[in-house]
Automatic annotation (TrEMBL):
The chain crosses the membrane at residues 7-29, 35-55, 76-100, 120-138, 150-167, 173-188. One of its GO terms (biological process) is CAAX-box protein maturation. InterPro entries: CAAX_protease, Rce1/LyrA-like_dom. Belongs to the UPF0177 family. The keyword Nucleus does not apply. It comes from the Bacteria. This is CPBP family intramembrane metalloprotease.
Length: 212
């Protein structure tokens, strides 16, 4: 990797890790006061900071392209298809995990978010806005896009989706890996990280609304 690639990746992953550590540590050690308001603000500000860092340490990887999906209509269609694909993958693969692998159907991550949102509605902004931005910049932009400058895209997509799945660590490895692959495909076809961000946001929004 060249210096621009390394700087971009280091900036994004460092910021993401800082945000995640804050989300874990603050509720654990500071049980009094507006804990989840602080967590929400940190995640939203962190997402904004990561967008800034991605521009400040800009690196145009082999996936980034202004020539792909040039019309808004084409991007909208890709977003719609991506959303349908991610939701369908969740339904089909969760059914497989439950019936064949005998795993529980519920997602620990989703249940955790729902439980917090019931008490603090503003926390809804975290899974629907902040998480998709931060996760797309790390797992798709860096692990898939930037890695594609030194490795075949298929290998990078597998690495990206695997790390994405492990990062969620709630037992539904196959489901998250499939979602990761679909989001890589959306990013690849659009050439724009914003497109996979929007699909991710809409997917999380749909899941949250269904479970509320």
């Amino acid at each position: 990797m060249n210096k621009q690639n390394s700087a971009n990746g280091l900036a994004l992953t460092s910021a993401y890790l800082f945000i995640m550590i804050c989300q874990l540590m603050i509720p654990h050690y500071f049980r009094n006061g507006p804990v989840y308001l602080i967590c929400t603000l940190i995640w939203l500000l962190g997402a904004s900071a990561m967008i800034f860092l991605n521009r400040r340490f800009s690196f145009k990887n082999p996936v980034d392209s202004t020539e792909k999906c040039t019309q808004a209509t084409h991007e909208a269609i890709l977003i719609g298809l991506g959303l349908i694909a991610t939701l369908a993958a969740q339904i089909l693969l969760t059914t497989f995990e439950v019936n064949v692998l005998h795993q529980p159907s519920g997602s620990e991550n989703t249940n955790m978010f729902i439980e917090i949102i019931h008490q603090y509605p503003y926390y809804f902004l975290c899974p629907v806005i902040a998480a998709p931005i931060t996760e797309e910049l790390v797992f798709r932009k860096f692990f898939f896009g930037n890695f594609s400058s030194v490795l075949p895209k298929l290998i990078c997509a597998l690495i990206s989706s695997t790390v994405f799945s492990i990062g969620h660590s709630d037992g539904h490895f196959i489901v998250y890996a499939a979602i990761g692959l679909i989001l890589c495909y959306v990013y690849e076809k659009s050439g724009k990280i914003r497109t996979s961000m929007i699909v991710h946001m809409l997917m999380n929004l749909t899941v949250m609304l269904i479970n509320l």
